[in-house]
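User: two proteins, same treatment. go.

Assistant:
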Amino acid sequence: MYIHATAQDFHVEELDPVDWVNPLIGTDSKPSFSNGNVYPAVALPWGMNFWTPQTGKMGNGWAYTYSSDKIRGFKQTHQPSPWMNDYGQFSIMPITGQLKIEESERASWFSHKAEIVKPYYYSVYLADYDVTTELTPTERAASFRFTFPQTDSAYVVLDAFDNGSYIKIIPEERKIIGYTTKNSGGVPDNFKNFFVIEFDKDFSMNQTFSSGKLQKTLETEADHVVAVVGFKTQKGEQVNARVASSFISFVQAETNLQEIGQNDFDQIKEKGKDIWNKELGRVKINGGTPDQFRTFYSNLYRTLLFPRKFYEIDEQGQVIHYSPYNGEVLPGYMFTDTGFWDTFRSLFPFLNLMYPSLSAKMQEGLVNAYKESGWLPEWASPGLRNVMIGNNSASVVADAYLKLNGQNQADYDIETLYEALIHGANNEGPLTAVGRAGVNYYNDLGYVPYDVGIKENAARTLEYAYNDFTIYQLAKALKKPEKEVELYKKRSQNYRNLFDPETNLMRGKLEDGNFMSPFNPFKWGDAFTEGNSWHYTWSVFHDIQGLIDLMGGREEFVKQLDTVFTLPPIFDESYYRGVIHEIREMQVANMGQYAHGNQPIQHMIYLYNYANEPWKAQYWARETMDKMYLPTPDGYCGDEDNGQTSAWYVFSALGFYPVSPATDEYILGSPLFKNVQLELENGKTISIHADNNNKGNRYVKSLKLNGENHNKNFIKHDALMNGMRLEFEMDDVPNKKRGVNPEDLPYSLSNQ
């Protein structure tokens, strides 16, 4: 799906927003090198079920890779990333001729030339079988359409996968039901994904298989079961199937199937297209190149996929969910498949800005997660997973409340969420990635020591300090006791304990108060998480002025920022005993030590705004957008990570970015398009204009906000929500007189 147009003949009004989306961007990836590490998610925004063509073997996290030439099936997936792998998965595969059950044997050659990939629709020609397969989803169901040749041996194989599955064929109802238990962790013992598939044509044969062996029954339960139904078809005959699943029961799966109702395939397809156009169309862009349009809307598509809905609507129309924490079926919302270490930075702030009512439901889901597990998840897929560091649920909860409450959207149990934050901030969890590992050291010493057996200790300290700031902000808003408010304000300054004045960098510290030695700032991992000291030194989101002061002033601070880009991309991988893909992606990018392919440093570009040199933020924001994001299968510069890397691009293309969630400021950069219109949920509009914008004019010469000169390097959330007109005058040389006065600088706790 690549729309050919030149800048001269291009007219945006000729295409819907969804027509610009290419779900194949980022699929040219592998474990050793990520260009996104995504699959083409055929789904509705935040849908419970995604679908994808499956090129990888069963259980392979790289379910679809662009370089593959065979498709093994069409898989229902809930995979958030290849590293987390999948759950609730099964596949459907049409074949003709000789009956083939095993996935490698039944796999068919295909070509991208005979493949159509859209967010709401997928089609491909399976060359080995002369069959065209089409699919189009709803939130919890999907329609399939198979176009067969003339044959007496047309089949559909339903593979329920291994590690425990069940299938029953009901010929008189043209139906197959079953369940899969295959998962990658984070589920209770009673976990099942129940599915139902109905066809519109009588079966000419039906068989079940267990571990590849034919069974003499239409009902089979074993480690790995497969069902096959057959048809006699005329040339070009279309066989339709409706499929849905549920984490609750077979009855609920049948209820979820009613999302399709009496609609035929094309009607479901058009409804899906309309839904995507509605959500993508909330951001209207103009005045850019075709490639910029493709890149922008493809990134916006990825921004609107996670966290996915993990709730269902019962026969009475009530919201219910299977709890991935205690295995019970309970009322209320639940969302999952996101890691806050990644997504607190810009994904959730984007939802708070553009989709506040949905964000409020996500907060309700977090209330339920806490009640059902005793903890807030830091990485949920679908339940608690022991991955990454930090206590960044604090940021997600605080930023949502502080922004939604001002719009009267925070009608959920914030007191229970505050209780959850306090609990998580003062206790180690059942998993290292839940609560705070090393919390007693952190609370007593003000840091997690390097030499007490807790990995990635410096990174934990820095993130805990920022998390404490977000709790401080929320505590103030909720009018908590002054002593409690001041405690978290004080703890938010703990980042200072790891600052090494000799190197002007953050450094691991021993329990006795001495810095760890020897110190190699290029060493990945060890005291840091998927990065080195050059990346994590900037993780003081809430108090950049405090960091500036530690470094000796703004000139030294800017010098250190500049050095990130001028250093060679050298690294020490000894902690990992090999070069991890994040290291390699930094090395090849030719941007020095700037590692945009991973999250810890993604905000760093915008920090020039705090130090009187905003034009450098403008330069590097545009440089990163132009260089690191492309509308091609290798279009990302590392893991896309559940919308975070995409949300960075979306915000940056608008011209501002939320450096410190749980504050009310967005920090200015360089807008990418000549005109953007954001349609807010409250009916207000944000209009962004940069009429003389182009590739060469990346610097902000002047800015007017609602007709008044605006020299500040930030804009306020409430002002945006009230509707705003931003008029940028762009130039090819920096304006070094704008945004350099004390009142122009963004918020820092030290300046409060």
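Protein 2:
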Amino acid sequence: MYMMFFGSSVLLLIGMAVLWSVFLFRGRRWLTLLNIFFLLAWLGLALVATWSIGWEFIRQIFGMLAPMVVSPFILLVTVRDRSVWGQLVKRYAVFVSWFAVYMITFQIPAFPDGWTYFECFGLPILVFILLYAWDKWFGRRFYRHWIVIGSVLMILGFIFISLLWNAKAMQDEGHAMQGNWGGGKVTSVKPSVDVTTLTGPDATAVTKQYDFTAAKKNMSVPDGSEKELWLFNGQLTGPAIRVTQGDVVEVTLTNKNIEDGITIHWHGYDVPNAEDGVPDISQKVVAVGESYTYRFTADTAGTFWYHSHNQSSEQVGHGLFGSFIVEPKKQVKEELEIVGFVAPKYVDSSGALLPANGKVPKNIKPGTNVRIRLGNAHNKPQKLILNGTTFQIAAIDGNLIHKPTDLKETYLQIPAGGRMDITFTMPNHAVCLFDAKDATGGWVFQSTGENTKASTEIPDNVFKPEKYGEKKATTLDASDGFDRLFTMVFDSKLAFFDGMVHHLWTINGELYPNTPMLMVNEGDLVKTTFVNRSYSHHPMHLHGHKMLVLTRNGAATTGSPWWTDTLNVKPGETYEVAFKADNPGIWMDHCHNLDHATNGMMMHLQYNNVYTPFSGHTHE
């Protein structure tokens, strides 16, 4: 609904701008009536949008533009009996209507500053005064075509300058010292801590050791073509890391020939900050010929993954990722386990499934307990279907679901970077798991009794994690309220980027590195509100912490506690999440559509006493 409001607003405002341009020279009544109709249509659309999706989604557009759009009509009614002023108002209307189109398309941020208010209010008033001076001092010495040409050139100038200005924002040094304290105070001042000291255990404690070499390799991909991939140890997907809860894991990374350098991020795992793998924040990038060692305790069981975090849109897309499974100390029941990923965009854009620990079994004995640990390495949410049996979602992002219930004829939407554990008991007929975009790239499990054909129909019902499982108490106690309250509004801006005009994705109207730090003290209880006013999905990933989903679109969650590290916020959606600030450091908080992160949609969560010795900005 938000995108309908946004798109319809642009079209209606363009219609009004065109009509004002014609109406300036042709005073026909039907043009006036049509312009009034467009205005009423826009006001009605705003009313419907407010009722259906909430004022939050339209308040910026409507609140900033309504005075601009309405003002020519008010002025015309006021001066309708004074011909000179009437012509003046029409000239003003030509400018201000086209300027409103420009503002909605290129400029309006989530939280406007003083300059934006001047653009929306002060600049039209200034134009009106200048037009008055024009009529008073120059009379008819300037012909009407100058009005049209001047207005067009002015708007084109604004657009060009905005494209350059927005592009420049991504090259800025950023607000290095600017922080958002979420309405709270600095409750304590602790000694400064260097992120490089926030490390894992000593090398003598290591129980599982791995050596990874990142290198390029030509190989065939699921669609049958041959591509140059960038891989860990020459494997797609990378080597499967499988450890037991309590193990101390050590991974030594060597970069053979990835020119831009490389790091490893342990996605969803709350490692110490120095082990997080974010270049120029927790470490320097590992250049060609260099090595780096990560070490941490695997104290949380579940399904996780690892991937490069330098130029990650390109590097993950080319294959630099793999599975990271932490088994509990005590297995609840014996299971046949299958680990896999939806392929990233450069490997196979259509949604093929890639096994992460060897071949996928073709035949499974009826009665076998099966667990599929499935991750999404793509940039976009993936629509996955399991047909042929009832099933359960045992875990989301490595977090167990309390008392999961049976699902059938329900599709799963796994966000970019997210994971789901799917469990079922093998029936005496075929079961099929596939991506809705590519049924041929899925997995078919046949019963050992006889071969049957599995259905590839796509169900209508979507899995709703906010209502799934049984509610229970959590370790996060918000009875005394929250120490920090943050709001993150997602929009977009147009700008020159890589030689073309692109959408750059903003948080609170800012592009990285100008997105202010979210500042916390250790021990703070934090609530964050996500508001997606853009036309794209944004899977928001917070490093180093797990988020508890409190509400979706204003309604409280009613199922099992929904803990996540990668929350997909669809267009027009709002979420409230909470977390405990219990892992000191400087942590990334970004969209895991990695193209969006590259184009500006990232920021950092910083503990008030932690600093990084590295210069520059995080590279996505």
